[in-house]
């Protein structure tokens, strides 16, 4: 069964460092998303991406964050200068249709900022 | 403010028993409501998606209901199994956006 894959599964970094989280969405999906979940809290929407551009972003997704799809398969989330409060599980998701389509999540990348 | 509230926060049941989880939402405008299962440290897995016009949908032993008038949904699990132990998250999509509003989940533990 096709799945969304994410790497790394866990990354530990120093505050102020740049981090890139990688995702390979399901191959025939067109809509891509990043979500985050701080330990013990609810999942929060970060950004959606369609047709090689951001279609929507939340207030969490500030200038420290960026996304891109550098080739036909990878979808990346970059955090330019990490803060302690960026420590969370980051989930990538993809779907065939926006809004109404079933959303498939990856297993997540746990980011720990020291 | 768009919010999704779930109850109970946690639930313990014995294997083989049924249970019902509740979700109330204040999301507007509404597009659809989803239930996800999330194992600890894993990504959410979709169970059901319901639009405004659907009031019940089943997926195996999981049956979700939706009352769009009262803005309530429930997830009923029949004949629970040990593998049902997980968090169950109610998620509402805001109409005409990509934004999903997640509830905090109900943590279900099934004991033998």
How would you describe this structure to a colleague?
The complex is a heterodimer of chains A (114) and B (112). By secondary structure, chain A is mostly beta strands. Helices cover 0% and strands 50% of the residues of chain A. Chain A is built from no helices and 11 strands. In chain A, a hairpin with a 2-residue loop joins strand 5 (43-50) and strand 6 (53-57). Chain B contains no helices and 11 strands. In chain B, the strands form 2 sheets. In chain B, strands 2, 4, 5, 9, 10 and 11 form a 6-stranded mixed β-sheet that branches. In chain B, a hairpin with a 6-residue loop joins strand 4 (30-38) and strand 5. The A-B interface holds A 4, 31, 33, 35, 41-45, 48, 55-56, 58, 89, 91, 93, 98-100, 102-108, 110 and B 31-32, 34, 41-46, 49, 51, 89, 91, 93, 95-105.
SSE topology sketch:
The complex is a heterodimer of chains A (114) and B (112).
Chain A: E1 5-7, E2 10-13, E3 19-24, E4 31-37, E5 43-50, E6 53-57, E7 65-68, E8 75-79, E9 88-95, E10 104-105, E11 109-113
Parallel strand pairs in A: 2-11
Antiparallel strand pairs in A: 1-3, 3-8, 4-5, 4-9, 5-6, 7-8, 9-10, 9-11
Chain B: E1 4-7, E2 10-14, E3 19-25, E4 30-38, E5 45-51, E6 56-59, E7 62-67, E8 72-77, E9 86-94, E10 100-102, E11 106-111
Query: How many DSSP helices of chain A?
Result: 0
Helical proportion of chain A, percent range: under 10%
The number of helical runs of chain B is: 0
Mean pLDDT of chain B: 94
Separation of termini of chain B? 41 Å
Largest sheet of chain B: 6 strands, mixed
DSSP strand tally of chain A: 11
Helix percentage range of chain B? under 10%
Q: Please report which band the strand proportion of chain B falls in: under 5%, 5-15%, 15-25%, 25-35%, 35-45% or over 45%.
A: over 45%
Q: Uncertain spans of chain B, ≥5 residues at pLDDT below 50? A: none
Name the largest protein-protein interface in this structure: A-B, 27 and 25 residues
What multimeric state do the chains show?
A: heterodimer
How would you sum up the global shape of chain B? globular
**Head-to-tail CA distance between termini of chain A:** 37 Å
* SSE class of chain A: mainly beta
């Amino acid at each position: 069964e096709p799945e969304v894959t994410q790497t790394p599964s866990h990354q530990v970094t120093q505050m102020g460092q740049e981090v890139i989280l990688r995702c390979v969405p399901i191959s025939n999906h067109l809509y891509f998303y990043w979500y985050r979940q701080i330990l013990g809290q609810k999942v929060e929407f970060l950004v959606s991406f369609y047709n090689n551009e951001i279609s929507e972003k939340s207030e969490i997704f500030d200038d420290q964050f960026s996304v891109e799809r550098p080739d036909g398969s990878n979808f990346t989330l970059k955090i330019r200068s990490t803060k302690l409060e960026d420590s969370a599980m980051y989930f990538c998701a993809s779907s065939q249709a926006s809004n109404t389509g079933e959303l498939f999540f990856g297993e997540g990348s746990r980011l720990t900022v020291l | 403010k768009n919010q999704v509230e779930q109850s109970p926060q946690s639930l313990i049941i014995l294997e083989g028993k049924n249970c019902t989880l509740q979700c109330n939402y204040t999301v507007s405008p509404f597009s659809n409501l989803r239930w996800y299962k999330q194992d600890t440290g894993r990504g959410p897995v979709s169970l059901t998606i319901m639009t405004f016009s659907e009031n019940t949908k089943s997926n195996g032993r999981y049956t979700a209901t939706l009352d769009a008038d009262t803005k309530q949904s429930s997830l009923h699990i029949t004949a629970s199994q040990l593998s049902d132990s997980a968090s169950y998250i109610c998620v509402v999509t805001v109409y005409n956006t990509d934004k999903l509003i997640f509830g905090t989940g109900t943590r279900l533990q099934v004991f033998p």
